[in-house]
Design brief:
The complex is a heterodimer of chains A (608) and B (233). With 608 residues, chain A is α+β, with helices and mostly antiparallel strands. Chain A has seven helices and 32 strands. Helices cover 15% and strands 31% of the residues of chain A. Classes of the chains: A alpha+beta (608), B mainly alpha (233).
Chain lengths: 608, 233
């Protein structure tokens, strides 16, 4: 179903006639005026003036740092051949995104990618460096395959570093590369898929009904290359060329048994109006009203996060956030779109584990600008958190790094992933030179920070593009990709916002593979830390009878030493279910959902 | 340029243990230097699809530096500075002459982005030991003519600049938009020319900048066209 939201419709109106609501003297006129007055100036950022992140000394590898709610376990500088010792700001060597498989972490770089052995997360080692320039170099892993994005004109089919001699050349590769990594020490390129706009990012999409293929969505954001280099490429407007390379993504189907035969099978017009067929039907670019952010035009997706278990994907598509039905991965279909007058550029998306919430990020300033200064609005360059019901997304709240950063720190919302604490929605997120911030968005209208790490700027006088590109949770640790410094590893520590049991419960979730843009459904075993996590949450929120909490604590203590009987666990489960029923009937205060969830865990433990 | 020598970690960095209170007070980084290792790692370079992957010897590291800028890249940046500088001369005329608020707003945004981009281009040239065009020093001058700026594609002729300077009100708005569209189209021509030159436009930062200019100017042209259509009776 396609339903332009009110702001979108308004934006479209204002864009066809950009100043229709404004008289020549600048005062608002007509029906729009009331709306314009009702729209408050975006709120200023407010922060604790004693926050330890303020005033950290600058330095490339010797900056000061501040940390809260986590422990900094390890850091590793960029590998040889992947930095310029003369400056942290050489864009040819920027580190980019991360992917994980077993004991390995893969890190993209504009010059290729690295494979780290993280068997001991506190002491990561570099296993192999792979030279293959092309930028951004975002990576994903899938079994024996590694997929990498290439967008730059210097990208070569043969991974050469010298660029391409001729302006129009068959030696150039802009698109995705597929490597066979079955021999980790010698990744072999098995396919190179050319696309008109290259690949800024990409997204793996699994088909739950087909284990012989995997799909890759290519998100190109650069200007299309000339048709002389690749037939059919065109940067023309839709009215000049209905086959324009703008306003689409590319879908690649990869046969797992023969990845060399991977090919583009669809170039869906996911911004089209299904009724009129017009392909550029979403945001036309510009501010929704006077004083609003200037929002980019929707002719590209910057990033798409697929959630195959739900059959959905969330697209962060320059001027809009969109929801795609991907039950047929080769044919994604848009089912909803949202617009936000505070967003400059819809950049990335993360679902809550149950899919009922979505975090969209706004990369105001493109990632290379300082957008976390005290003077920057608290709703610009931030996360916008939406609730989802069926096909419909509605705005609930905003979250921005809750402390001001300096003029020489590029800072804006960037990539992150869920921290699997049962009963809560938590995301660890990179904010470039703003550092790492762990956000609780269980209540999407009132998100708050529970942990952070931050370094001082790379330089006190120069603004170099640096800081954290992405920070992801993987099997018990947080891994950070630092653009110009290397990698960092963290572990969460207990605090007033997060208990030891909640961390222990999160650590129980283990994955064989993790790509942030193909979100897996996370589930927890029926184990004592999970039960304790729910208990801690109810105690913290004062949503459980004190006597019940005490009895539970004692029972779980015995369960941890295997001295609780199945009958006792079942008995307590029944008591909690009775409490939940009382709560639901309005006869008792408490948290019915968590009481029931906890009862379920106890029943599971009893059955083991 | 000497590339790819390793950086020695701070040998004297203080060790920051959580029990000592790092959580609340700034601490030097890294805590005692790197805590993992990149030393002696294998470096490989794959070939084209189907081709073999080769091992890169440690002595080859110098060759991995990547694509450097070309003469055409430098010329592009040196040419785009006066091009942007003229846009600033045009926007400087707006406060005293434009009638429509949309034109005022557009000019303000352009001024900010063109200034940022000029600063980026100047730094890019400085970092690479290249001459920064003197014209840059004139940008933003209230009454500057265009006579002292080299003519790049789309730039206003001295006659056009005079015409704009003497226009007022609705007439100014129309001329400003028409001339700025012409001006921006010139920037797109310059980007096209850059990418049509063999070997040019491949250095990462320059590629990113030129792509950005292309997208940004196209978007602004679209906005100016719709404003112009609205203003025309």
């Amino acid at each position: 179903m396609t339903r332009p939201t009110l702001p979108l419709a308004l934006a479209a109106l204002l864009l066809t006639a950009p100043a229709v609501a404004l008289a020549q003297d600048g005062s608002a006129v007509g029906a729009q005026a009331a709306g314009a007055e009702a729209r408050a100036t975006p709120p200023r950022l407010d922060w604790d003036p004693n926050d330890p992140r303020i005033g950290l000394a600058a330095g490339w590898h010797d900056a000061e740092s501040a940390v809260s709610g986590m422990e900094h376990l390890a850091s590793l500088q960029r590998a040889e051949g992947f930095f310029n010792p003369e400056t942290p700001g050489d864009g040819r060597f920027s580190n980019t995104d991360l992917a994980f498989q077993g004991p390995y972490m893969f890190q993209g770089n504009y010059n290729g990618f690295q494979v780290y052995d993280i068997s001991d997360p506190a002491s990561p080692t570099l296993r192999v460096s792979v030279v293959c320039p092309g930028g951004q170099g975002d990576v994903s892993v899938y079994g024996n395959l590694l997929v990498m994005s290439a967008q730059e004109t210097r990208g070569r089919l043969d991974c050469g570093v010298g660029g391409v001699e001729e302006a129009v050349s068959g030696e150039r590769l802009r698109g995705i590369r597929i490597f066979d990594i079955s021999d980790l020490d010698s990744p072999r390129q098995v396919a190179a898929i050319q696309s008109c706009r290259g690949s800024h990012t990409h997204t793996l999409v699994e088909d739950p009904d087909d284990d012989e293929h995997v799909y890759v969505y290519i998100q190109g954001t650069n200007s299309p290359r000339p048709g002389e280099e690749m037939a059919g490429c065109s940067g023309a407007e839709p009215d000049e060329d209905p086959n324009t390379s703008l306003f689409r993504i590319e879908v690649v189907r990869v046969p797992l048994a023969n990845p060399g035969a991977a090919e583009i099978v669809n170039m869906p017009r996911i911004f089209a109006d299904p009724e009129t067929g017009r392909i550029d039907a979403l945001h036309a670019g510009g501010a929704a009203y006077e004083g609003a952010q200037r929002t980019r035009r929707t002719h590209q997706c910057h990033d798409i996060t697929a959630y195959p278990a739900l059959g959905l994907a969330a697209g962060a598509c320059s001027g809009n956030g969109i929801l795609l039905d991907i039950s047929d991965p080769a044919n994604p279909v848009r089912i909803d779109e949202v617009f936000d007058p505070n967003f400059a550029y819809w950049h990335s998306a993360t679902f809550s584990n149950d899919g009922s919430k979505l975090v969209f990020t706004d990369e105001w300033g493109g990632g290379s600008a300082p957008r976390c200064r005290g003077t920057d609005p608290a709703t610009w360059g931030a996360n916008a958190i939406f609730r989802r019901q069926g096909d419909e997304m509605t705005l609930a709240g905003y979250y921005k790094l809750p402390v001001a950063q300096s003029e020489t720190e590029n800072c804006v919302a960037h990539n992150g992933s869920l921290v699997p604490v049962p009963g809560r929605d938590i995301k660890v997120q990179a904010w470039y030179q703003g550092g790492v911030s762990v956000m609780d968005f269980t209540d999407p209208a009132n998100p708050f920070e529970i942990a952070y790490f931050d370094r001082g700027p790379l330089s006190e006088t120069e603004l170099y593009t640096g800081g954290f590109w992405s920070t992801y949770w993987y099997n018990g640790h947080i891994y950070g990709a630092e653009i110009s410094r290397g990698i960092d590893v963290f572990r969460l520590t207990p605090s007033e916002h997060l208990s030891e049991a909640e961390i222990a419960a999160a650590e129980l979730v283990t994955l064989d593979e993790f790509n942030a843009q193909m979100q897996p459904h996370l589930s927890w075993p029926d184990a004592a830390p999970v039960a304790r996590a729910y208990l801690d949450q109810m105690i913290r929120a004062k949503r459980i009878l004190a006597e019940r909490a005490e009895a539970l604590d004692a029972l779980l203590e015995r369960a941890e030493t295997d001295t609780a009987s199945a009958a006792e666990l079942q008995g307590m489960a029944a008591t909690l279910e009775a409490d939940a029923a009382q709560v639901e009937a309005g006869l008792q205060g408490g948290d019915a959902a968590r009481l029931s969830a906890l009862a379920g865990v106890l029943r599971g433990m009893a059955g083991m | 340029m000497k590339l790819l020598t390793s950086i020695s970690p701070l040998a004297t960095a203080l060790v920051c243990l959580p029990v000592l209170g790092c959580a609340t007070s700034p601490a030097p980084f890294p805590p005692g230097g790197d805590t993992g290792s990149t030393a002696g790692a294998r470096i490989v370079q794959p070939g084209a699809p189907g081709e073999a992957t080769r091992v890169v010897a440690g002595t080859d590291l110098e060759a991995l530096g990547g694509v450097a800028h070309t003469e055409a890249d430098v010329a592009f940046m040196q040419g785009m500075i006066p091009h942007h500088a003229q846009a600033l001369q045009m926007t400087a005329l707006v406060p005293d002459r434009a009638a429509h608020r949309g034109v005022h707003q557009m000019a303000l945004r352009m001024e900010i982005s063109q200034r940022d981009e000029i600063a980026l281009m100047e730094r890019w040239l400085r970092d690479r030991g290249q001459e920064v065009p003197a014209a840059a020093a004139h940008h933003g001058m209230e009454h500057a003519g265009s006579g002292d700026l080299p003519m790049m594609p789309g730039m206003l002729t001295p006659e056009q600049m005079e015409q704009l300077q003497s226009a007022r009100g609705a007439e100014f708005d129309r001329l400003f938009l028409e001339f700025m569209i012409q001006h921006h189209e010139g920037a797109i021509v310059m980007v096209d020319a850059l990418f049509s030159t063999d070997g040019a436009g491949q250095e990462s930062e320059l590629f990113q900048f030129a792509s950005h200019v292309d997208a940004d100017q196209r978007a602004e042209i679209a906005r100016m066209r719709s404003l112009l259509a609205f203003l025309r009776p």
